[in-house]
TrEMBL record:
It comes from the Bacteria. This is Redoxin. It comes from Abyssibacter profundi. Residues 1-19 form the signal peptide. The keyword Signal applies. GO terms for cellular component: cell envelope.
Length: 168
């Protein structure tokens, strides 16, 4: 069902404007953590730069993007940015168990929340998988990236570092 909803959202997204525009405060983003019995609220991360990454276990590019984002996170932490940013992944699998199996195979060190009804994906109008947003410390969306190719990780890093350093 989620794939069908996602396909319809993608078609609608092609003909309507994005619900989340650059320069806009990120909408309320809250969800149950996939691997822990906790809730994560994006508002609790104000003051940090956040890379918000929407993904699913059935997404081919996500098999590359999640591990590469995890390595990017490790590199930035080692490079002196541990308190300035966080990556938060939003999983869109209907069955959270599929996402848990995926994360056993492709583990990450950053928080993952589950969105089995794709309600957050609808708010953000996700057109493709994965889709990422960079949100500055004030909660404003400053960058959007759709899809993933390994060669794009350097641009994602550049955008994160610029945002952490207060650059547009």
């Amino acid at each position: 069902m989620t794939r069908w909803i996602f396909a319809v959202m993608g078609l609608l997204g092609a003909v309507t404007a994005s619900a989340v525009e650059l320069g806009q405060v990120a909408p309320e983003t809250r969800g149950e953590r996939l691997l822990y019995d906790q809730t994560l609220d994006l508002a609790d991360l104000r003051g940090k730069t956040v890379l918000l990454d929407f993904w699913a276990s059935w997404c081919g590019p996500c098999k590359q993007s999640l591990p590469m984002l995890d390595q990017l996170r490790s590199d930035l932490v080692a490079g002196g940015y541990p308190d300035l940013f966080e990556i938060v992944a939003v999983n869109l699998d209907e069955n959270p168990e599929a996402a848990r199996r995926f994360l056993k195979r492709y583990p990450v060190s950053y928080p993952v929340i589950t969105d089995p009804e794709a309600s957050l994906a609808a708010v953000y109008k996700i057109p493709t998988m994965p889709t990422s947003f960079i949100i500055n410390p004030q909660g404003v969306v400053t960058w959007r990236h759709e899809g993933f190719r390994p060669s794009e990780i350097s641009e994602i890093r550049k955008q994160l570092v610029q945002t952490m350093n207060g650059q547009p």
